[in-house]
Amino acid sequence: MCSLTEKDRPIVQLLLNTGTCPRCILRFCCVGSQALYRCPYKDLMNDLKEFLKNNQEKEDMVCFDVVDPPCKRIRLEHTEEGPDELNHNGALQQIPSVNENTAMENSAVKVCNVCLGILQEFCEADFVKKVCQKVNSADYQFTSFVFSVSLPPQLSVRERAAWLLVKQEMGKLGLPLAKDDVVQLKEAYKWIIHPQLSEELGVPADGKSLFEVSVVFAHPETEEECRFLATACPDCFKPAKNKQSVFTRMAVIKALEKIKEEDFLKHFPWPPSSPKNLCVALEIQCNNGAVFVAGRYNKYSRNLPQTPWIIDGERKLESSVEELISEHLMAEFKADSFNFSSSGREDVDVRTLGNGRPFAIELVNPRRIHFTAEDMKGLQQTINNSSDKIQVRDLQLVTREAIGRMKEGEEEKTKTYSALIWTDKAIQKEDIAFLDDIKELKLDQKTPLRVLHRRPLAVRCRIIHTMRSEYIDEHHFRLHLKTQAGTYIKEFVHGDFGRTKPNIGSLLNRTADILELDVESVDVDWPPAL
Q: At a CB cut-off of 8 Å and minimum separation 6, what does 467 contact?
């Protein structure tokens, strides 16, 4: 049950006469009943006509009985435009007084001069089915949906003009009308469309859903209606990257907030004539929120980069850790793209052993999202069977928030390495034994020459917590190190032309170089072991 009061009568009569649809009239009468907007269009029109016929002055309220039958398709009839002019002061033209019969004659179904048909044709069952067919053909997995709509920016201009007209009419009755009192077009549209989409798709509408169904509307016939704002408020319209037009909805709204009412009325009189054409649905799109997969990887090859190695557009190696893992995830989740991250990285010639290095992959717009623990176990096995260069473990679904734990306190974490070292001068076991006794050795590491092209020049303080040497022969020994994360191990061995101090060469008083390096452990307790 929803009511219109006697004060609404002149508003209903005025808007009907100027070509406004019943649902927009309810919006400007500040009617907040969702069920009423869902009534069939013809029923609403008839109810408004009955409301205007009611001349019982003693009765100060007329009620609509609200029923909620399925919407019926309404054939929209195009009508000729009727231009209106401002008076010489630029004020709103006085709308000729009309009786109820005149209003009803002019209220034949036509494209609404406020919503441009959004609350007419695009609320009907045929359009809802069209949207749902698009959703179903995209083959997404989802248990709920959120519906979003993008409206033509000129709708905000027409909305402003209608509000000024109604506010003026309310002022004659000594009543105020704030912009926020009017039911927003998007809100009314969602009240109508949500139940229909929900019934057709078989899942509930949920504002927090990760599955989004979006519709982009346009109305080419009235696109020029925003242009006067660029002259009145040039600061609001600045070219932006990836924007085809400066007349974005946000820019138009900003300009409308800035422009004075009298200036607005000089350029945009009310009522504008009803357009000949409806809005068009330019795009109907679906998008699933990202899914995040985490695990740990081992790398057994000394000829495999972590991420694709491309220099000046030329690929140096055929694959990478990232690609060997992600190609299977992309195929199973049917995602559009992915983003790979990890707890640190190793060089192309460095192996990662032990429990492996934590990693996470964001899968963008996945079609498939429902995976059991057994599914993930099978996917892990598929990855491991596909290559002898890597292996993954503890593969699991995680939340976006959980990925932050991988990066938390990253530089405070420790990593363990094994380095095969060569020296130019012969060594004996006794010559390297003292390294085992060194604890918490502080290094000053200037950005290595090999990464200077992608890292800022700086001196970083790093700590070698412990070392353990393992003698091999007169020119070779293996050094096991536990270090602060972020330490450049290769530079600690050869010194990088004095950019890392102290270094193994300076400690042994001879030239040293590194032949092999392995990461033996990354001490980040994430993701949880399975």
A: 435, 436, 438, 441, 479, 480, 481, 482
Is 347 among the catalytic positions?
yes
Instruction: Give the pLDDT of the chain (530 residues) as one tens digit per residue.
Output: 357 888 899 999 999 999 999 999 999 999 999 999 999 999 999 999 999 987 444 444 444 444 444 333 333 333 333 333 333 334 444 444 434 444 444 444 689 999 999 999 999 999 999 999 999 999 999 999 999 999 999 999 999 999 999 999 999 989 999 989 999 999 999 999 999 999 999 999 999 999 999 999 999 999 888 888 887 787 777 776 666 677 787 888 888 888 888 888 888 877 888 899 999 999 999 999 999 999 999 999 999 999 998 888 888 898 999 999 999 999 999 999 999 999 999 999 999 999 999 999 999 999 999 999 999 999 999 999 999 999 999 999 999 999 988 887 676 789 999 999 999 999 999 999 999 999 999 999 999 999 998 899 999 999 999 999 999 999 999 999 999 999 999 999 999 999 999 999 999 999 999 999 999 999 988 999 99
In the listed set 355, 380, 410, which residue is the last one of a domain according to the structure?
410
Residue whose structure tokens are 């009568």: 9
Tokens of 308: 């694709």
d(CA 336, CA 330): 8
| Active-site choice (181, 206, 263, 347) | 347
**Is residue 401 domain-shared with residue 372, that is, in the same domain?**
yes
In 3D, which of 459, 330, 441 has the Cα closest to residue 382?
330
Distance CA 134, CA 336 (A): 17
Residues 361 and 293 sit within 8 Å (Cβ to Cβ): yes
The verdict on residue 332 lying in a domain is: yes
3-class DSSP assignment, residue 419: strand
Which of these three, 369, 389, 410, is where a domain ends? Answer: 410
CA distances from 1 to 31, 39, 67 (A): 11, 12, 9
* Residue numbers of the domain that contains 175: 113-225+268-287
Asked whether residue 178 falls in the same domain as residue 295, the answer is no
pTM of the model: 0.81
Could you count the other beta carbons within 10 Å of the beta carbon of residue 392? 21
